[in-house]
Amino acid sequence: MKKVDLSFQSCKAEYNESNVVLFSVPMDTTTSYRPGTRFAGNAIRVESIGIEWYSPYKDMNLRDYKTVDIGDLELPMGLVEDSLEIVNDTVKQILKDNKKPMMIGGEHLVTLPVVQALVQKYPDLHIIHLDAHTDLRDEFLGRKLSHATVLRRCHDILGDGRIYQFGIRSGDKHEFDLAKSGHVFMRKFDLEGLDKIVEKLKDKPVYITIDLDVLDPSVFPGTGTPEPGGITFKELLSAMKTFEGLNNVVGADLVELAPMLDTSNVSTIVAAKALREMILLLHK
Amino acid sequence: MKKVDLSFQSCKAEYNESNVVLFSVPMDTTTSYRPGTRFAGNAIRVESIGIEWYSPYKDMNLRDYKTVDIGDLELPMGLVEDSLEIVNDTVKQILKDNKKPMMIGGEHLVTLPVVQALVQKYPDLHIIHLDAHTDLRDEFLGRKLSHATVLRRCHDILGDGRIYQFGIRSGDKHEFDLAKSGHVFMRKFDLEGLDKIVEKLKDKPVYITIDLDVLDPSVFPGTGTPEPGGITFKELLSAMKTFEGLNNVVGADLVELAPMLDTSNVSTIVAAKALREMILLLHK
Amino acid sequence: MKKVDLSFQSCKAEYNESNVVLFSVPMDTTTSYRPGTRFAGNAIRVESIGIEWYSPYKDMNLRDYKTVDIGDLELPMGLVEDSLEIVNDTVKQILKDNKKPMMIGGEHLVTLPVVQALVQKYPDLHIIHLDAHTDLRDEFLGRKLSHATVLRRCHDILGDGRIYQFGIRSGDKHEFDLAKSGHVFMRKFDLEGLDKIVEKLKDKPVYITIDLDVLDPSVFPGTGTPEPGGITFKELLSAMKTFEGLNNVVGADLVELAPMLDTSNVSTIVAAKALREMILLLHK
Amino acid sequence: MKKVDLSFQSCKAEYNESNVVLFSVPMDTTTSYRPGTRFAGNAIRVESIGIEWYSPYKDMNLRDYKTVDIGDLELPMGLVEDSLEIVNDTVKQILKDNKKPMMIGGEHLVTLPVVQALVQKYPDLHIIHLDAHTDLRDEFLGRKLSHATVLRRCHDILGDGRIYQFGIRSGDKHEFDLAKSGHVFMRKFDLEGLDKIVEKLKDKPVYITIDLDVLDPSVFPGTGTPEPGGITFKELLSAMKTFEGLNNVVGADLVELAPMLDTSNVSTIVAAKALREMILLLHK
Amino acid sequence: MKKVDLSFQSCKAEYNESNVVLFSVPMDTTTSYRPGTRFAGNAIRVESIGIEWYSPYKDMNLRDYKTVDIGDLELPMGLVEDSLEIVNDTVKQILKDNKKPMMIGGEHLVTLPVVQALVQKYPDLHIIHLDAHTDLRDEFLGRKLSHATVLRRCHDILGDGRIYQFGIRSGDKHEFDLAKSGHVFMRKFDLEGLDKIVEKLKDKPVYITIDLDVLDPSVFPGTGTPEPGGITFKELLSAMKTFEGLNNVVGADLVELAPMLDTSNVSTIVAAKALREMILLLHK
Amino acid sequence: MKKVDLSFQSCKAEYNESNVVLFSVPMDTTTSYRPGTRFAGNAIRVESIGIEWYSPYKDMNLRDYKTVDIGDLELPMGLVEDSLEIVNDTVKQILKDNKKPMMIGGEHLVTLPVVQALVQKYPDLHIIHLDAHTDLRDEFLGRKLSHATVLRRCHDILGDGRIYQFGIRSGDKHEFDLAKSGHVFMRKFDLEGLDKIVEKLKDKPVYITIDLDVLDPSVFPGTGTPEPGGITFKELLSAMKTFEGLNNVVGADLVELAPMLDTSNVSTIVAAKALREMILLLHK
């Protein structure tokens, strides 16, 4: 008799045979408002039993591709630097084995160690970033490493012209100014122009980071800092369709689901369905 | 002093004087994911106290029409065939008495016995089907009779060219292929083209079956298998306006509300308001 | 050491130095369906810790303006006339001190005493009213003073041509007839034409009353009588942008948040963010 | 075909043949904290489908007795005096027809018009009162008629030595003093000594009023003013057993269930089971 | 890198090396009231991350024993007989391999195939049964196989004097009569006398089946048919201590957790902690 | 007009005139399971509007004593050492001003800086500790400073014989061994013997720290790590009565309420009522 296997929907391959490696990062230490994203990974796994393995949007089937789910990384709870190092080591190993990383957050700060690992392999790395919040602060509540500074830290690494933000509708004035002065590309409030950016980056190595609070809270209430005025799920699906124009997506993440706040359970389903589409994108 | 009467909003006529007969079917035996639609009927009844009897969309008033509410049918819990037979008998009686059936599910399988009864009276019956799911499997988890096969069973009865699906966004690949090869009409993801179909069917006998999960989960979280990427309530209202172009609507149902999952209670209100509009449509 | 200060986000000025006075009215006595709006004020205050003080929509910052939050008014619970008088006295004092009132309801009836106070100072007062419900009944459940009659009472004071309603989708037939016969302006179902009305009223003294149930229940489930088919938050933000065309907004309110019904807490966040935008509008 | 019948579990007799008349009073106008008891009656009706008609505690079966359920009384929402008069008229009619009243609240104030009606028929009326709160204030928030004054109003009618309170653990100091000076009998915190009081009153006409918040909030969270430190459900059942020592129970009520606050639905089940026991007691 | 392992807390052994085999049965087809126990197994697994592996009650540590968790059995949804056969086959294999079965329900009917398998190996099998409900009906809603008949079916197999029930407080009169006439031992309402029964059965092969609704709904709201008036968790722990007097516990189950109804998540934690104690008991 | 004042029930004195200083610590950084205690302070403040200022248990009235509420301390989110220092500084100032500190957590680690401040003034300090968990680990998840080590850190300061634990029912084996070998006094599972300890410590300076998860989860579900098998609220009240035998209570805290997990809101009410009793104890 076999041991219980609660891998994400149909992603039951072994590590060695897989092209995509799914993992989750149970960390929300720097979350400043409502915490709880640490529980996202397993919530999505259990909920994924209820979604189909076939995507009518992409006409692709999870069962036709090899994906391994290695579960929650084991982190020293509350020790931020040590936790980020473990994420970084994990991604380096995945890249070394010529697989693509697909990460479930956790808070948004977990994107940083992935980007640090990717840039070593892909020095010309670009980031497409969907989010309600700029995350461009230089420091937040006395911390350099924070969910609210994570894209600024990525900018420290990548420099100007490499980060493309969409859906942004919350932040401090100086963060918006950073975009105005051209350090990052920022589209406020919606996803307009994404197709042009995709066209522009089509042969570049691109990392896609999706903070699920880019969705309107009506669609995705289960997150720590819901920000009214966001996009619909159809708009997110449309963006994922647009991403198919990229020839070199080198990894991706979905962050900021907080299951404790998801009273109707629908946010977890939204995240699971979005994850199915993203895994299929990485296999394309 | 009179006994308590918890008929749906204003539908307090006696059976004999009524043109429309409202009933609910407390069955969710074949539900494969989250069950609980068995409780929909009474939840809608109690909640309907909070909605208006006047519809500004149709400029019609429930109080001006005769509708009887006969409540939940009494079913042998868990015995699928026996339960369907009771629904079938009930609808046959309603049709014999020259009234129109308006059914609240329950899971979607309850549509089958209604269609079986209707086709005897209206051999040229057509179905308009709003849903997130195709429900076109030939068999599901070892069952021929299932919420996931119900439209396939209807197709067995009606044959090609009689079923028109809208809003579909989930299913197995072979189900979508069934539509591609022309056995049923399927509009994926939205309701575009509904007006043309209504025009085409305007003098046909038409049964309308609405799986409320055609709505986006933001609008209607209280259902067993929410499927992100659905339509808005305004789009559903617009469809109901379009339905007025049909000259021979012979019955209708609203299925798949699961009150246990409706933490904010809003899904039940959505169902109640949709039901008001559907009853008025049947009286038109 | 200083006493606890739970003023709404950044609105921590003293009364004398303030231009805008924020207060809340914990009254829901005439609520006919699900009560609980009495708790809205403090729920918004506590939740406001989680929103930004900077608005990217208006490029304005709450910290740059002087606003005082005087909290819940102390009302004799359940005594309608006495409670309204206290609201009226409060607003008269605010006007006398040359400040603008920004009110959080409570049920919608609390708008009446504000209008009564304002019209003394601004005889040419006009009202822009966003709501799902007409609130134009002459009497409701035996009461002249009710959440369902409040705009009718305002009409008694202001007369024809002064009230402009948008988003209306529920009421009794005779209420809609009142608009048809031209006593009030009514735009059903959405906000179309708001820009024209704003242009028309740009130099008039205008009071803006927003019943938050004008929003679709997917966006704002936490209210006593959710009414499916409403506007999105983006549409509400757009209306607030349009309001900037008014040169003389003399006060405003946001009513009908019922925190007990807000299981996901998102409605309270929606109200808090809308309130930030309205306070900034009053400071413009 | 028969109209829907949602009478409380098995209580489906007609009025004329019944010995006990069940009704509910949807009023919570004077509730000072969290409102919503207006919805208790129908919530209990719908939930009662899930409980047994046989009581192993009393070895009696609801089906063996004739009880009619006349549903929610129709009240003019928010008009306290008018509402109480309707309750009073209803009970007078029930008494005239030689039946016993069994009332579901609503807030506790609804007990007053029942007592007013009963005392006319039974001048020697006594009251046994289970509650967390004394309800002995002379006035509350400017009102003589309030949930917080209802037992004081009963005392006005009945005088000293007629009211026996148990389980009391909240109130103002002067209310506790009223008991200390002997005007009413009060047992604080628990039900000790109930058997002695029952023995003493065994041949008197007794009305039993149970504010369900006498139960600990762990047992009964679904109420407006939960008061930690209450009794268990077993202790309540034991009290109901003790009540069998009374030879002349002339009526009873269960008040203060607030279904909106009953997130787990268990409080409604507690109320339904308690109601089954109370109806059986009245039939004894 | 290793695949995700979501075995119940510390029970991460391989099948071959284990003495106890944990499995869950996602079946609730015959549930007559609120369904959802099909989700119990994985809910307990994920929640078990939050409980300790050391039991201060037994001074034993899960880590010191070999237990395998084989997860949810794969069942043909809604086909009762086929599902029970799969459970039966699984348990037969476990017994053949000289291991002990520890089952998580699902509805209570899943106990039957375990008992059928056990009695083949242990003809002198006895059952200790903790429950709110008798489950002794001969037939329920037209079914011989039902959660409400399961102990009657066990009695068909084992005969008189083999079944010992505790905590019973709900059922039909004829079920209680079955106990009165001596066919089964029944202790109503509480666990008194359990120690004497344990003493009596100490050298017999005993199966322990615990319907978690034996607990009071205040302790365990997350179940389909909560029955007020139950035992506390301390009383359940005390029973588990008493069970240590049994020298031959041959298997056990915990049934009727319904996670969809567990709004506070505490019922799932209660089940997880009870499961830890039961696994340790089987290892004793 | 005065600014909003949301001090805890009746505790509206100014700092200088107060004998007791109430403050809350919004920190849950080291919480290993479900976070969210950072929100406890303001949740209790808002909820306290619904409780009485008079205590029938102590026959004392909050209004008769001077207490100031200084609100949430402002902490650098996620920086543990810095946050603890701020708590320590605050308490030192309170002690210097000859007032008593009453703290609301936050996670349990916040007790440490209070004890550090108190021991400087009261070298002979003793601690009475009510909790489900030992909190005696030397290190937890790589941290010396953790909610799970806090009493061990207190032991480092105070040494043997100074810490008295009650209600303990969860921890690792070596923690229980620490008590067995006499370093701390530990009463497992309940509060028996508390009166003897109080008698023994009656003239000592005593700090009382109450982790509210000492209560059974049925009473107090709203906490991060509910531990079934706890005490009732009546037992906690009884302990508070017993504490009156102490002549020198120098401060106290209530920790581990997590409002996000308190779906029924009852845990917040439990905490508010317990806080009222504790404040009165400090004034005694």
Structural description of this entry:
6 copies of one chain form a homohexamer. Chain A is of the alpha/beta class and 284 residues long. Chain A has helices at residues 40-47, 80-96, 111-121, 150-158, 173-180, 194-200, 233-242, 266-283; strands spanning 20-24, 54-55, 60-61, 67-72, 100-104, 126-130, 163-168, 185-188, 206-211, 249-255. Helix content of chain A is 31%, strand content 17%. In chain A, the strands form 2 sheets. An 8-stranded parallel beta sheet of chain A has the order 4-1-5-10-9-6-7-8, with helices on both faces. Chain A has a two-stranded antiparallel sheet with strand order 2-3. In chain A, helix 7 (233-242) links the parallel strand 9 and strand 10. Chain A binds chain B through residues 49-52, 54, 56-57, 59, 61, 216, 218-219, 232-234, 237, 263-266, 269-270, 273-274, and chain B through 33-34, 168-173, 176, 188-189, 216-219, 221-222, 225-229, 261-264.
